[in-house]
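ok, trying the design again with the full structure, not the truncated one.
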C-alpha cells in the first residue's frame, strides 16, 4: 500500500504569505516530488474554519484556496493527488466522536493553540476550539497519512494524533497508521526546523491571518505595491548589523527567511550575502521587490482559473476519498463495537 502525505489549510478570511510559504508552496513542491510513489491528499478543513468568526465567505474562500494551489503548480490531474473539502466527507465528523472518547481532557487542555485561541481557557470559548485537534487527528488517521507537512505551530497536534493512534492500536490491534514523529516530518520536508514566518510588526509572534493589524501580515490578495510598503515598514531592531538570529533579531531574520523562499535561493546563501551588512533599508528593498514580483505573477495566475474547474477537481476528489474514509471508519466502528 502506498504511504500518504496529507495536509490542509483553514480558509477563514484571506490567506497570508505565512500560509503560502509555510504550507501551500512546500506541499505543492512535495506533491511534485512524491506523487508517483505516495498518495497526496490536500484538503480544505472547512469544519475547522468555523471555530472562528463565521462571515459568509467560506465557499468563496474555499474556491480561492484551491486556486492558490493550482496557481502554484499543483497537478490536480495526477491520479495520486486528491483534493477535497472535509465537510463533504462525513466520516471526518464521525471518527472525531470516536476519537473523542479515547483522548483525555488533560491532553486537549494542554494544547497551546487551544490556550491561545480560548484566551487561556475562558469559559466563553466555543467547544470547537477545544475539540479542534481531535478533528485534526481524524483528518489524518482516516487516510493513514504518515507525513503531514505543517508549520511548527501544528506539531503539538500531530504528536497528539500519534498518541491517540498508538493508544487505540494498543487496545484494538493495528487499526491506525500513526503519523511519523515531528522530527521525521521535518526531515521529510527537508527543512532544518519547522518554518514560522513572523508577524511584521511583532516578529516574536507568527504571521497570522487573524491579526488585527493590517501592517503585520501580507495577504495573498494584497496589492503588490501595498505589500511592498508593509515590508519597508517592518519592525527590525537596534543592533545595527544584519545577522540571522531568530532570538535576538527576529525581524531581520524573518526578512532573510522570506527573501530566501521568494527567490528560491538557499537560506544559507542569503544569509552569507547579507551577514555583517548594516543597511536594513537595503535588505528591506530587496525583499519588497521580490515580494512585489511574486504577488503580481501569482495573482495573474489565480485570476485565470475558473470556479467551474475548481469544482470539478473537488467533486472528483471527494468521490474517491469518501470510499477510503468510509472503509477506515467502518474498521474503527467494528473495533469499538458499534458495528459488527
Ligand atoms: P492553519 O490553517 O492555521 O494553517 C495552515 C498551515 O499554515 C501553516 N502556517 C504557517 N507556517 C509558517 N509561518 C506562518 N506564519 C504560518 N501560519 C500558518 C500552519 O502551520 C499550517 O501548516 N490545524 C490546521 C489545519 C488542519 C490540518 C489538518 C493540517 C486541519 N486538519 C490535518 C494538517 C492535517 C491549521 O489550523 O492550520
Amino acid at each position: 500500500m502506498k504511504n500518504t502525505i496529507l495536509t490542509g489549510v483553514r480558509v477563514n478570511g484571506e490567506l497570508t504569505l505565512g500560509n503560502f510559504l509555510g504550507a501551500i508552496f512546500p506541499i505543492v513542491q512535495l506533491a511534485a516530488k512524491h506523487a508517483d510513489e505516495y498518495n497526496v491528499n490536500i484538503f480544505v478543513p472547512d469544519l475547522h474554519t468555523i471555530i472562528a468568526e463565521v462571515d459568509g465567505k467560506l465557499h468563496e474562500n474555499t474556491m480561492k484556496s484551491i486556486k492558490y494551489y493550482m496557481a502554484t503548480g499543483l497537478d490536480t490531474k495526477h491520479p495520486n493527488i486528491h483534493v477535497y473539502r472535509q465537510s463533504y466527507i462525513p466520516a471526518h465528523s464521525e471518527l472525531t466522536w470516536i476519537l473523542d472518547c479515547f483522548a483525555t481532557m488533560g491532553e486537549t487542555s494542554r494544547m497551546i493553540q487551544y490556550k491561545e485561541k480560548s484566551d487561556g481557557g475562558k469559559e466563553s470559548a466555543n467547544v470547537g476550539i477545544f475539540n479542534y485537534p481531535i478533528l485534526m487527528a481524524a483528518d489524518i488517521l482516516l487516510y493513514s497519512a504518515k507525513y503531514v507537512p505543517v508549520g511548527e505551530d501544528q506539531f503539538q497536534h500531530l504528536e497528539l494524533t500519534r498518541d491517540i493512534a498508538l493508544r487505540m492500536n494498543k487496545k484494538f490491534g493495528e487499526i491506525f497508521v500513526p503519523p511519523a514523529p515531528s522530527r521525521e516530518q521535518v526531515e521529510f520536508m527537508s527543512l532544518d526546523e519547522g518554518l514560522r514566518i513572523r508577524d511584521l510588526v511583532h516578529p516574536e509572534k507568527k504571521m497570522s491571518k487573524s491579526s488585527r493589524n493590517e501592517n503585520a501580515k501580507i495577504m495573498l490578495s494584497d496589492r503588490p505595491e501595498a505589500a511592498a510598503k508593509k515590508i519597508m515598514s517592518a519592525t527590525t531592531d537596534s543592533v545595527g548589523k544584519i545577522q540571522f538570529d531568530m532570538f535576538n533579531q527576529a525581524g531581520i531574520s524573518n526578512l532573510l527567511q522570506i527573501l530566501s523562499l521568494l527567490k528560491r535561493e538557499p537560506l544559507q546563501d542569503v544569509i552569507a550575502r547579507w551577514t555583517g551588512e548594516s543597511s536594513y533599508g537595503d535588505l528591506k528593498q530587496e525583499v519588497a521587490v521580490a515580494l512585489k514580483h511574486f504577488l503580481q505573477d501569482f495573482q495573474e495566475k489565480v485570476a485565470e482559473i475558473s470556479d467551474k474547474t475548481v469544482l470539478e477537481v473537488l467533486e472528483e476528489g471527494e468521490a474517491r476519498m469518501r470510499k477510503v474514509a468510509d472503509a477506515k471508519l467502518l474498521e474503527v466502528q467494528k473495533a469499538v463495537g458499534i458495528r459488527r
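Keeping the full-length input from now on. Residues 6-10, 18-19, 22-23, 45, 48, 136, 139-140, 148, 150-151, 153-154, 195-197, 206-207 surround tryptophanyl-5'AMP (CB under 6 Å).
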